[in-house]
């Protein structure tokens, strides 16, 4: 398989174009005569004016002509393009304007974190790295989703399960939203770890082998979603609505501790029956 490592210049260009094209000129109070446009969104000269840079600079950025924008320029572009906080962080990561940890990504859980995951029982919990590899899990999470012990190590990945596992593929009632949010989170991790070949290989595998992933990945959504809810269709417990919370250990900020809780009394009863079995 060909390894896909982040080409920051090309990705920065594509990201700026897609963010510019999604903007509605009417939101900027532009004159009506400017509404007859051949392309969606704002024009490059409008972005340049809003960001306080030259039109030529925006053109060169969008054509991936090797510029290394400063933090001040990135702030101007983020403001002009009305980027959300996660998108702004993604932009800065692509331009290498944020400090990053030089340590190798974790492939196993630190003993203290593995114990913490176990101690969270009876709440379903698991520990992921930035690739969504499942590093640790407790029995409740194994019963609710799928037992990672039954999978080869290469498939102990939350995104792989959602995209490829025959049972988990049909597990989420609002599947498109769950997959979309997962991909938006994975894209942020991809920019923050541009030299992670294993992550690049994983994304290349998903893009080539899964039409749904390829379609949503091309939209370049970026969002780090730390909490929310999911509606599950469990083959034994039936419908279960869970709230999830995602925490980052201070000493291992690239890892994610995911904890599920029942969202209502019926879901709690379903989880109790499932975990008692």
TrEMBL record:
Signal peptide: none annotated. It holds the Pfam family MLTR_LBD. One of its GO terms (molecular function) is DNA binding. InterPro entries: Cro/C1-type_HTH (IPR001387), Lambda_DNA-bd_dom_sf (IPR010982), MLTR_LBD (IPR041413). Residues 34-88 form the HTH cro/C1-type domain. It comes from the Bacteria. This is Transcriptional regulator.
